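quick one before i forget lol
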Amino acid sequence: MFPIFYSIGLLIILPASFIISLWKAAFKSKLEWLLDSLVTTALIIWLFQAGNWSWVGYYVRFLWLILLIVTFFFSWKRVRNLPFTIKYTLNQKFSIGIYIVLILFFGTYNALIVKSYTVAEKGIELSFPLKNGTYYVGQGGNQVLMNYHQDHPGQKYALDILKLNTLGTRASGLYPEELDKYQIFTEDLYSPCNGKVVNIQNGLPDLPPPKSDPENPEGNHVALSCEHYDATVLLFHMQKGSIVVEKGEIVTTGQILGKVGNSGNTSEPHLHIHAEKNGKGVPITFNDRFLVRNSWVR
């Protein structure tokens, strides 16, 4: 239940409280309004970029931007005739100090997130392994605030991919136990490259969320040695018994490998994909796109 409350609190309650505060606050000067506006803007931009919006709806992130603009307009009308500064009381000075701290805090977060969008290393170009839907990157990018895999050298630059429904959520319900309520469950997985199957696992069970199997973190999976690249591409958490290729088999780009499941150390159905070389993760791109959290692929 914690992920549910965390998502609602972080992506709904937190931005709502900041926007309501900006809307209703009784400012005594334009400086106070400006600092509150900067804090609220930095927060909304941070959540817009780094929030996992597949829980509450991808389109909600745009709603907060619209509400922020509307709030700017009406709150400015109330303060435009105020002086820029006044002689502040001790409590007002303390509030201004808090504003400055929050601006630095959220500003630093946003600066770090910018790093997620680019990578200096040369990436491996792959074909996207899913078709016929709207797919969403839940974890991805070159910074741990956007991609927790960055803390694990062997999975650096890994992606966790979900599928969205028409409401912009990844499942019917917030965190259902039924696997078939997740949009991506049983989706066909296609080979992202020409290459050779170097390893498979096909017999592990698909677990109902939030159960997981930390003793077999990869779950059912396929490992490919792709042509032209000295690296191994791995696709994790596949459906039990769904893998239709054999170890040692030569595969071509777009060939069906199996289906998305919920096996291994996973919190819910999704595709985990990454490439590694000599035990270290290397970047992957699709149509020359380096995908990050909140990226879409259709």
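fyi The mean pLDDT is 96.
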